UniProtKB/TrEMBL annotation:
Pfam families: Polyketide_cyc2
Residue runs in coiled coils: none
Name the record gives this protein: Polyketide cyclase / dehydrase and lipid transport
SUPFAM superfamilies: Bet v1-like
Organism: Vreelandella arcis
Length: 144
C-alpha cells in the first residue's frame, strides 16, 4: 500500500478554507489541474454517496465518490471509482482542516492510500502530491 501525505499552513482562516474545500464539485474553481466538474444524477455536492465527474485540461476524466463530509470536523473523505490516466487501485483519500489558534490561519492535511505498480509508483506519488499541494495553494488564494 502506498501512502501520500501533504500538509500546509494556509494564510486564511479555517472558515475561509472550509468554504472553498468542502465543495465536492468545486475543484475547477481553485485547482489549476482541473477544467470542469459536475455531480452525477443531479445530486447535491455535499451528499454522501454523490459522484463527481471531472476532467483535467487534457480531457482525462476522473470519477470519485464522496464517502464522508463533516462540517463539525472539517473533514472530507472520498474514493476514486475511475481514473484511466491515473494507474491506481483502491484509492481512498481524506482531507482535514484545523485552526491555528495563535495566528488565525488554517492547517490542512490531505492523504491518500492506494495500490500502484512499482514501475509507475514515483510518477503517481508526485502527481498526487502536486494535486494536494496545489489544492491547498488554490484554496488559500480563492478563500481570501
Amino acid at each position: 500500500m502506498t501512502r501520500v501525505y501533504v500538509s500546509a499552513v494556509m494564510p486564511i482562516s479555517l472558515e475561509q478554507a472550509w468554504r472553498v474545500l468542502r465543495n465536492f464539485n468545486g475543484l475547477p474553481n481553485y485547482h489549476p489541474f482541473f477544467a470542469k466538474s459536475y455531480i452525477e444524477d443531479g445530486k447535491p455536492a455535499d451528499q454522501v454517496g454523490c459522484v463527481r465527474h471531472f476532467h483535467d485540461h487534457d480531457g482525462n476524466a476522473i470519477r470519485e465518490e464522496l464517502l464522508s463530509l463533516s462540517d463539525r470536523e472539517h473533514l472530507c473523505c472520498y474514493r476514486i471509482l475511475e481514473a484511466p490516466a491515473l494507474p491506481v487501485r483502491g484509492y481512498v483519500s481524506e482531507m482535514r482542516l484545523k485552526p491555528i489558534t495563535t495566528s488565525g490561519n488554517c492547517f490542512g492535511e490531505w492523504w491518500a492510500e492506494f495500490e500502484v505498480d512499482d514501475a509507475e509508483r514515483d510518477d503517481v506519488i508526485q502527481r498526487v502530491t502536486d494535486t494536494f499541494r496545489l489544492a491547498f495553494e488554490g484554496a488559500a488564494e480563492v478563500g481570501r
